[in-house]
């Protein structure tokens, strides 16, 4: 598989590879989003500067070894609005799309357009399938997968830790053809 571009744009949404100098802004955005993220993403609980530094260092390492390609989602002014990425954890030939957004940027299609950019890039670099995994209770995230033409292919028990908001069932959404 090829490596993805460091920068992606799709329908007005810009993505760029994370940089170590993003630490302060990333910490601020996650800190302001904790209540919004924690029901779905256990890593957000207790997020601090150490975890920020570790994440940004891991982004670089993962990019180099092809494990994951993480991007900052930028708003129209160039500020960080969230994060998204392509991860190789779904097996050979496949890539998983993951995403989260600051609550002040939700409801405008930003995540859908970011996920569309990642999906197109995944197929461009040689993926034979792209997956999105959502908790069965996370209707907003599932709606992103549906809007982008992903089809539900499995329901699996979630691995702990899970929050009371989660059903504890992960829905696997898959797409095997590039966007038109």
From TrEMBL:
InterPro entries: Acyl_CoA_acyltransferase (IPR016181), GNAT_dom (IPR000182), Ribosomal_N-acetyltransferase (IPR051908). Gene3D superfamilies: 3.40.630.30. This is GNAT family N-acetyltransferase. PANTHER family: ACETYLTRANSFERASE, RIBOSOMAL-PROTEIN-SERINE ACETYLTRANSFERASE. Pfam families: Acetyltransf_3. It comes from Rugosimonospora acidiphila. It comes from the Bacteria. Residues 13-178 form the N-acetyltransferase domain.
